[in-house]
Each structure stands twice: as structure tokens, then as C-alpha cells.
Amino acid sequence: MSNSITRRLPLLLLLSLLIALVAYLSWPSVKANKQQKPRVIAVKTAVIAQSEFKDVVEALGTARANEQVLITSKYSDLVDEISFDDGQQVKKGEVLVRLNRQEEVAKVRELEANLAESVAQLNRFQDLLKKKATSKSELDQQDAQTKAISAQLMSARTKLSDLTIKAPFDGVLGFREISVGAYIDSGDVITSLDDLSVIKVDFTVPERFLPTVAVGQKITATNVAYQEQVFTGEIATIDSRIDPQTRTLKIRGKIPNPGLKLRPGMLLNITIERHTDMVLQVPESAVIPIEDKHFVFVVSDNKALRKAIRIGRRQPGKVEVLSGLEEQDAVVIEGALKLREGTQVSVLEDKE
User: Fold this and answer.
1) Does an H or E element contain 143, and which?
2) Which of 200, 314, 249, 242 is nearest to 59 (CA)?
């Protein structure tokens, strides 16, 4: 009997090894099946709602002063007096420069004296004519002489006035280009004058926007110098013609500039607000484009449901939804690329 057990011992050992091997191989899958749980993806969502959608047209324009001139002299003469500083704000009629006018002052006084004497002589001829002591021709001759002296006096006074150069309108002066005692010629630039109370800006838009722009329409402008500030104005003029080469329409806007922050020559980013609608919008990050279709994931009962949507107009960060969603739907705005239909999700944060 002991011999029989001895003969069977190798077989028993082999059978024990096979049982142990099978148990070892099947143990990981059993453990994995026991430990396997549904996969949960962390996402962020936003509740969508009706909001304003501003239909705008964007363009670039260059700022110009409302009024701008180069101050020059009409006559050549010496500079006697300068009454302004660089960059000074002046009012209309303020004296800027006086040229040498001694000769003109003397001439005006001489003509005033001549005119007074001629008028007195004319009065004597009129009295003599009444007494028939002189002829009508002599009276007419004296009258013509009086009118000639009067015209000469007016011309002299005008020249005298022109030798005093005044500001033609309210504004800000530029740099002074002359000095006291200098001799300037007719047409020499003395300084510049800009009316900065209002800034004009000329820009162009494609001809297809012609039916949707009008005088008085609101415009906004920004500039790199004032990145946090928006300047508001309106359309002042629309050109009567379309440029036949570029097929664009020229528009001039006016922007109030009370702080004088805007200056001529600035590049302005112009936005025309055509109209404002209340539409359903979703954040741009929520939209998943696939070929020619668009999808979003909506969270319902902690599950991600993929919905096809039809989109419309766009604006920075937002997309108009024409169909496929309803108000108060919670759409996934972060983590959507990890999702599949029916995926379990954990909402980290809701954003309005």
C-alpha cells in the first residue's frame, strides 16, 4: 500500500501545482472585476440664457481735429511781439503775434486827416451849390475825391489789422516757429492751431453695409494708448459715392473729446453698432465642431448628453444658438473633449 501511495505522489503534486496555477491566473481578473467602478469626469459648466447680441461693424480710422489750420502772416515784416507759448489753449480772437506796424499806423492817421479835410470841403461845396455859387461838377469832383480817400483809409486799416495775427477759433496751439525780431515773409508758418474739443475720424466699410448705416448712428472708438477706455461718438456724414476701385463706403464720425485725450493722427479702432438683439448664446469653448456640424455636451442627472446645435453669428467668446438648446441648459465649457455620450460627470463649478 505504501508503494501505491509512493507511485501516486508525483501525480498528486502535479495536480496541486495545476490547481494553484489556475487560481493564480484567475485572481487578478476577479480582483479587477470587484474593484472596477464607473469612470467620472470632472467638468465645468455654464447655464445658458437669453442675452444681448450686438451686431457691429469694425473698421480702422485716423483721428483728425475738428478744425485745424497753420497760422501764417499775410504780409512780410518784422515780428514785434509774440503773445503765446507752445501748446497753449487759446480762445477765438486772442492776439498771437504783432508785426511791426509803425508805417501803417502813420498812414492810417494821415488818411484820417485827409478824409476829415475832404469831408469839410465837400460840405462847403454843398452849401455853395445851394447858393448857386459853384457848379454841380465841382461838387461831384469833391465827392469822388472824398470817397477815394475813404476807400484808401479802409484799405490801410485792414492792413494794419492784418499785422496783428489773432486766433481764428478756440483750440490748442502747436510749436512756435518764429522769434521776436525775426523777419518773416508772407506765408511763413508761425504755429499750428487745432480744435480738439471734437475729433473727426474718417473710415471705410464694405458697400454691403450701406443699408444698415445712417447719420446719427452710435460708434465707439479705442486706441492703444488708452486700452481700458472706450470713446463714444456718432456718424456725422456718409459719402454720397462708393469707391469704384475698393467698393467701400467712406464715413466720417465725430467723437466728443472733453479731456483732449485723443489727438490728430491717432489710429482708432472703430465699431459701429448696427442693432442689438436678445438671443440665446453659449460660450465659444462649449462648441465642438465635427465636419460641418456643431455639438455641445449638456449635463443632466450628472451625465453628459451630446446635442447637435445650429449656430448663427459670433462675437468674441460667444456664439449664437439658433436651435438645439433651451434656456437653463447646463453646457460643458471645460473638459468636453474627454466626454462621450452618457459619461458620468462631476460638476466643479457653475457659471452664469
Assistant:
1) helix 136-162
2) 249
Q: Which of 252, 172, 198 is nearest to 65 (CA)?
A: 198
CA atoms within 13 A on the CB side of 351: 12
The pTM assigned to this predicted structure is 0.63
Q: Is 65's pLDDT higher than 80?
A: yes
**Model pLDDT for residues 267-290, shown as the tens digit of each residue:** 999 999 777 777 788 888 888 888
pLDDT at position 241 is: 93
Beta strands in 243-339 (DSSP E): 248-256, 267-283, 288-290, 293-300, 303-315, 318-323, 330-334
Exposure string of 32-48, with b = 16+ CB inside 10 Å and e = fewer, is eeeeeeeeebebbbbeb
Phi and psi at 232, nearest 5°, equal -115, 135
Q: What share of the chain is helix, strand, coil (3-state, %, to 5)?
A: 30, 45, 25
Say how many C-beta atoms besides its own lie within 10 A of residue 180's C-beta.
11
- Confidence tier at 93 by pLDDT (50, 70, 90): very high
Gap between the Cα atoms of 61 and 265, Å rounded: 9
Closest listed residue to residue 49, CA positions, set 278, 277, 280, 276: 280
Digit-coded pLDDT (tens) for 200-255: 999 999 999 898 899 999 999 999 999 889 999 999 999 999 999 999 999 999 99
Question: Which among 208, 237, 233 has a CA at the least distance from the CA of 218?
Answer: 233
Q: Are strands 164-166 and 288-290 parallel, antiparallel or unpaired?
A: unpaired
User: Which residue do the cell numbers 462675437 mark?
Assistant: 315
40: which strand partners? 344
Q: Which of 60-74, 79-93, 210-224, 312-326 has the lowest mean pLDDT?
A: 312-326
Which residue type does 44 have?
Answer: K
* Cα 287 to the center of its chain, rounded Å: 31
Query: Grid coordinates in use for 254?
Result: 465725430
**30 has a pLDDT exceeding 50:** no
